[in-house]
Amino acid sequence: MEQTGIFAQSTYTIDDLQLFQDCDHGALAPLLANCAILRLADGELLEDSARARLFIVLSGALAVSADVEAGAGDGVASRILPGESAGEQAVLDDSANLSAMAAVGSTELLVIDAELVWTLIDKSGGLARNLLRMLSFRVRAANAQLRRGQKLGEFYRKMSMNDGLTGLYNRTWLADMLPKMVATAQRAGTPLSLLMIDLDHFKTFNDTHGHLTGDDALRAAAGVVGVALRPSDFAVRYGGEEMMVLLPETSELLAVMVAERLVARMRETMIFPDMRQPLPHITASVGVAVLAEGMDDLGLIAAADAALYRAKNGGRDQVAL
User: Fold this and answer.
1) Which residue among the candidates 241, 252, 268, 293 is catalytic per the annotation?
2) H or E element: which one contains 119?
3) pLDDT digits over 270-316, tens only?
4) What are the chain's domains?
5) How many whole angstroms from its chain centre is CA 153?
6) How far apart are CA 219 and CA 303, in angstroms?
7) What's this model's pTM, rounded to 2 decimal places?
8) pLDDT in tens, 124-148
9) In Å, what is the CA distance from 43 to each residue of 68, 99, 105, 181?
10) Active site residue 241
């Protein structure tokens, strides 16, 4: 890092700097004459960035990373280009600059101490307006970045709750939501039914037609389940070829009707609508369970699983309670 104090003799003028646009340059330029110029090599860190100072880029650029260790390449929030500045917040609240700043290419910086910044503000209303405008822009940019981060976080949260193959909810979602649904039903005294669905002889189907066709079959089955449900119902890929349907406020009689409708529609499902190759229709066995008094979420799943076992032992392609 090389430091000089020759701003008055440099090739840069006050007109090039955003902070001083539309200001009385004649009154302000003499105050800047003794400000230091720092010269940084590419990648060199601004070592004294912990002090409350304003840094104006004359050439090159600064990469600014908020709240990261010096030298870290990740988390770069922005680049400060020629004519722009960094460190305004630190100057205004007289606090340490928490941003790690490093040169991008050979970089020259005009350094203005905090005391001089306040003197300049007192001298020029135009400079104060420019500073407020620049800070407003920074706040807007930070808010936009935060909103993008929130949307991205929500996107990944949703992704983590859905099965990538079928689009149904996954077991992570189930582990979070089923206990809440059970507690709500127990508290309100309303029925909660659960359907456990298993595609019949799916291992044989996969071995015969290949796993890619098996994936097509799973997607087709998930489509049947999704279309058959009400907006208040929830479908989950429980694992492998097993799926689960949660039916809030649904009695045993109505749950059996839903299950029988699913079994019937599954028989009619074609893996390839244009029938490019003759594949057997997929069928499903369904176990139905209804939440009993004092039963928890694991008990409800166990009851549905036991019912599914009876449906499979009874010849498959059917519903059992």
Assistant:
1) 241
2) helix 114-123
3) 776 665 555 567 899 999 999 999 999 999 999 999 999 999 999 99
4) 2-154 (2.60.120.10), 171-320 (3.30.70.270)
5) 2
6) 26
7) 0.54
8) 888 888 888 888 877 777 777 677 7
9) 15, 15, 7, 54
10) yes
